[in-house]
């Protein structure tokens, strides 16, 4: 039996539940100048219905009236949801995230640093002219034959798995161009983990200016040489680059810290990134000191893989290479978090048909995801395990049925699976229908023409 939103919120601590109190939602609406008439689907009921809809894997609007227990239609709920301003959902998400700060601050740290993970992803949405214009669709698809796809940028806390920031952009947007949108959630002395797409001089310098440490995988185009005193290409020569400088690293060697571990100097490139303003580019330093280290991943029966990291944690005695390698291995957890968002909660395909609706939907998904994470944290504390051992989908099921199942000790604990490999392949074959290469209206006319042909 489905539970009400009040029963869900009652399960959490007061600091989080107060964000969903009806009086708090009304206060938020009035603070942004939103007015409404007294009716079944007021702002409080509509926000609660939206949250229940997402907690039930983004179910259809026709099911929301039953979840709310109100005698309204799906059309009435959809209209009430569209009337709510975007600012209400953005402020509600900001309120929830601010109340989660105490949970994040109390979480375990890595050598005294809070650790964050950042990565990009994508989600599909209905094929409407407004969404096509705002987000576009992947290349190789004819007009009318594909769906708009948004590029998402996310920021997760490593220890708790909480989602603190999410932003949407057109599909053909590079990860680095949205990275600065996540920086406002970071504080001095934090550590940011990210893949090679974020490893650039501009991004490293911006983080260093803010006092945030970076642990990135080296960009695939970055030439890295661990020989002592090796040569390097001139940073910004006033003449065309000589042939003898080709194949040389662009960084200057400074100090050797160990085998495949060194400190080098990165120089500011001549060209400004397109995603930076002139003012931001002007305040960046001419060079920064960066640590480069390389290690191998060896698994029995598998090919050895070499990983090269780039970080500004230069003290090898305080931050040994083995510790940094183990830290970067946890970055893969963000892929699991994104899978929970997109597959378990159903964010892979959004339902609203306007840009504003898409942004509202993403905000509610972030709120629902964090509520599930809170359940996982409390269940982990009760059962004496780490939060990553708690099943996300079982915590979601408990949250939906919390009126019937009261104990957090019933949530499933996942076993440790050392050395487990999960290739990204599909075993179940889809139907062998051809792909759409022409708009549906054209294909329909072709079928009609065949049907009436003598």
Provide structural commentary.
The protein is an alpha+beta fold. 36% of the residues lie in helices and 15% in strands. It is built from 17 helices and 9 strands. It has helices spanning 5-9, 14-17, 22-31, 43-55, 64-68, 74-83, 86-99, 101-105, 129-135, 176-179, 201-209, 278-282, 321-329, 333-344, 355-383, 392-400, 440-452, and strands at 115-124, 149-157, 163-169, 191-194, 213-217, 252-258, 261-267, 287-297, 305-311. It has a 9-stranded mixed β-sheet with strand order 3-2-1-4-5-9-8-7-6, sandwiched between helices. Helix 7 runs parallel beside helix 15 (355-383). It is globular.
Instruction: Kindly report how far apart the N and C termini lie.
Output: 57 Å
Arrangement of strands in the largest sheet: 3-2-1-4-5-9-8-7-6
Query: Structural class of the helix and strand makeup?
Result: alpha+beta
- Strand % is 5-15%
Global geometry: globular
Which segments are poorly predicted (pLDDT under 50) over 5 or more consecutive residues?
Answer: none
> What Rg do the Cα atoms give?
25 Å
Q: What's the total count of β strands? A: 9
SSE ordering: HHHHHHHHEHEEHEHEEEHEEHHHHH
Number of helices: 17
Average pLDDT figure: 87
Helix content: 25-40%
The protein's oligomeric status is: single chain
Report the biggest beta sheet as strand number plus sense, adding barrel if it closes: 9 strands, mixed
């Amino acid at each position: 039996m489905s539970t009400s939103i009040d029963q869900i919120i009652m399960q959490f601590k007061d600091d989080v539940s107060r964000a969903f109190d009806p009086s708090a939602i009304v206060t938020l609406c009035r603070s942004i100048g939103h007015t409404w008439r007294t009716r079944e689907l007021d702002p409080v009921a509509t926000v609660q219905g939206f949250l229940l809809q997402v907690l039930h894997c983004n179910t259809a609007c026709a099911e929301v009236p039953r979840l709310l227990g109100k005698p309204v239609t799906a059309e009435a709920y959809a209209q009430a949801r569209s009337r709510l301003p975007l600012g209400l959902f953005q402020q509600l998400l900001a309120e929830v995230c601010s109340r989660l700060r105490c949970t994040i601050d109390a979480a375990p740290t890595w050598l005294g640093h809070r650790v964050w993970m950042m990565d990009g992803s994508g989600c599909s949405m209905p094929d409407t002219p407004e969404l096509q214009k705002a987000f576009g669709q992947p290349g190789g698809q004819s007009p009318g034959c594909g769906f708009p796809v948004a590029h998402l940028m996310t920021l997760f806390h490593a220890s708790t798995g909480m989602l603190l920031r999410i932003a949407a952009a057109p599909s053909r947007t590079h990860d680095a161009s949205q990275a600065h949108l996540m920086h406002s959630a970071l504080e001095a002395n934090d550590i940011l983990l990210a893949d090679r797409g974020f490893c650039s001089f501009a991004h490293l310098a911006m983080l260093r200016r803010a006092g945030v440490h970076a642990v990135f995988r080296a960009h695939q185009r970055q030439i890295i040489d661990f020989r002592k005193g090796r040569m390097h290409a001139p940073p910004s020569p006033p003449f065309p680059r000589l042939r003898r400088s080709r194949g040389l690293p662009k960084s200057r060697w400074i100090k050797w810290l160990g085998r495949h571990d060194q400190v080098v100097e990165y120089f500011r490139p001549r060209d400004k990134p397109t995603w930076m303003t002139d003012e931001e580019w002007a305040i960046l330093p001419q060079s920064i000191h960066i640590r480069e280290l390389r290690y191998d991943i060896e698994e029995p029966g598998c090919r050895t893989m070499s990983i090269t990291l780039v970080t500004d944690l230069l003290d090898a005695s305080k931050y040994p290479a083995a510790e940094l390698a183990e830290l970067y291995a946890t970055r893969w957890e963000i892929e699991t978090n994104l899978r929970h968002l997109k597959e378990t909660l159903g964010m892979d395909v959004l339902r609203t048909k306007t840009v504003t609706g898409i942004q509202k939907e993403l905000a509610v998904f972030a709120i629902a995801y964090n509520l599930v994470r809170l359940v996982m944290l409390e269940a982990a504390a009760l059962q004496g395990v780490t939060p990553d051992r708690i099943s996300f989908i079982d915590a979601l099921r408990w949250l939906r049925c919390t009126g019937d199942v009261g104990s957090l000790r019933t949530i499933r604990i996942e076993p440790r699976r050392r050395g487990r490999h999960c290739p990204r392949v599909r075993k179940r074959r889809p139907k062998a229908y051809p792909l759409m290469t022409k708009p549906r209206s054209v294909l329909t006319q072709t079928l009609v023409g065949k049907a009436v042909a003598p």
